[in-house]
Amino acid sequence: MTHVERVHEWAQARGLYDTDDPSVQFGKAVGELGELIIALANDDIEGIKDGIGDVRVCLINFCKIVDVSFSTWTRNVQHPGTVVFDLLQAFYDLSEAQKRRPYQTYLNVEAINAILNDIAHHYGLTLEECDNHAWHQIKDRTGRTVNGEFIKDA
């Protein structure tokens, strides 16, 4: 089973796809992006791994709700100096695109994944490591879903 498939199965079992409103998952992705940016500012490798994996889990769920394939394409590693700006721009573009065109949404998710890949490689990580880290944190979580948002048990 691929990472995308296991996240879909996990989210489906918890009712995250019982809504057709993608704003909850988009908002969660933006929140995780904030945590990633803090980890980047502090050169916190574990936080970066966690942030990349968590952003990708939220984007997988977002894509499922808007009925767009989650892109796993990645580009060659680019200069890491502009990644925060690039990520913010890509998230803004995604917020605009998802209102209008599925293909543009796909391209924006693809761009975000490429930037996340750049960040991972810069810090000696792979997207697979980040995905596995996120998966092992969420796979056994219990909680409830309220208005499309999973609220984990304490």
Strand portion, in percent?
5-15%
Main sheet, how many strands, which sense, barrel? 2 strands, antiparallel
**How many independent structural domains?**
1
Structural class by sheet pairing and helices: mainly alpha
What global shape is seen? globular
The proportion of residues forming helix, as a percent range, comes to 55-70%
Keywords:
single chain, 154 residues, two-stranded antiparallel sheet
Polypeptide structure, described:
The protein is mainly alpha-helical. The protein has one domain (3-152). 65% of the residues lie in helices and 5% in strands. The chain has six helices and two strands; from the N terminus they run ααααααββ. It is globular.
Brief description of this entry?
By secondary structure, the chain is mainly α. It contains six helices and two strands, in the order ααααααββ.
Topology:
Blueprint: H1 3-13, H2 23-41, H3 45-66, H4 83-97, H5 102-122, H6 127-138, E1 143-146, E2 149-152
Antiparallel strand pairs: 1-2
Helix pairs in contact: 1-3, 2-3, 2-4, 3-5, 3-6, 4-5
